[in-house]
Predict the 3D structure of the following.
Amino acid sequence: MGNTTISITPSRVLMKRDRMLYGQFIEHFHRQIYGGVYDPASPFADEDGLRTDVLEAMRRIQVPILRWPGGCFVSSYHWQKAVGPVRTPAFDKAWRVEDPNTFGTNEYVKMCRKIGCEPYICTNAGTGTAEEMSDWLEYCNLENEGEFARLRIAHGYPEPHRVKYWSIGNENYGWWEIGAKSAEEWGRLVLESAKMMKHVDPTAELSAAALSDIDWNVNLLKHCGLHLDWISIHKYWNLMPNVNDFATYEQSMAYTNDLDTDIRKVRGLLMAFGLEKRIRIAYDEWNLRGWHHPNVHTIRQGVTKDEYITPRDLNDRNQDYTMADAVFTACFLNTLNRNSDIVGMACFAPVVNTRGCIFTHRDGIVLRSTYHVFDLYVNYLGDEIPDSQAENMPVMDVRHKENRTERVDVLDILPTRRSTDGMLAVAAVNKHPSAAQKLTLRIPENGYREYRVITVNGESTEAYNDVGVNGVRLTEGEWRKRSEAPFEIDLPAHSVNVIQMR
Ligand code: AHR
């Protein structure tokens, strides 16, 4: 068992994280909306057809912002078909299914108000136009001027929705995206869209789909840097679009050497343009596990439903979401907190079903392992990042899925401080699959005479939650007096812990 020391200086606060780091994403894909959070036939449905058990679970992890409606879906979506008394079913060309359009902008905003989160709308920059995007903003945010604000009022919403966060496009750099653009085309479209959207509502905060790729971002920032408030990047580490081929626990730990790569690249570009104080990073789609949807992001499309629709049900296998997902998710949330001077928002993709942290079934919901990590981070960690220094950090060699050896840190430690009362809360992740690790906390300042440990863990690396299976849970320890001796904590194997001190 290793013995690592972390020295913390609570009074030297380096940065304060935005609560929007714990955001979520929901897309019109498979059972996320229809049959997920929106299920009028469910016994759990409220008067708006929303699953009250899902809404309650989202309130418990204080979802701060919810990105919608896509994702690839949005790049051929026309918002006007899904507002008002008459809804036009549309063939969703992204995911090749009919969308009834019974869940649209007004249902989405109502859902956000019930959750208590900010709406964050991603617009169609695939087949859409600057005008269609800015018309959507008129519909949502103008009081009563012009056709679209009047339309919202006629639809029964006299007050503006006041949607503050908007993204221009989704992954329009990717060949798989409908209406994909070259870097030059992208810079021009984003500029014209941003201009029209800001002319509608100058208080709206705008993001645009970006990459860590130099050429794409140089063109985007050169054209639009002064018009944007955010720049959006996405990452899934264990990509499985065509083969539902899960990385093992060990292989998942190998990915933890690649958590801040894209943040560093984008940070460097923003600094090169002198924009790092003006534009923040929105990591608005991320998950260890890429979604499974075979024969769609391919040249040859699936023909029979069994080739491209039925396999989507494989995303719903709860036994696949284990402590690997929990430990990886905690490590990435630590990375976001450490970079919260430039990362202001992040959206776990998605929140409900597919690879999400909440799974719905006829008789209730399953809180997957990742849900408990969000519960732990949102409800037990602080909002400030104090200065700290680690010594004697153990490492371990793990096999990457691409069959190379990666040497990774065994521990991932994030000290935080709660600004309201100064309480210290140290996130301590032990990635080792079988060995506990000892952590010594050194705090030169007085006080902090009591502590408790809150842990998310299971019996093994393969523990998971399912209907009738509670393999992974959050356990809250009792408050204890700190002994005079060095303050040592044992971190169990494959565990995510928060050590609170007051
Ligand atoms: O696999 C799901 C897709 O991943 C999302 O729709 C898109 O934004 C990303 O490419």
About this structure: The chain has eleven helices and 26 strands. The radius of gyration is 23 Å. The CA atoms of residues 253 and 328 lie 7 Å apart. Residues 27, 70-72, 170-171, 234, 285, 290-291 surround alpha-L-arabinofuranose (CB under 6 Å).
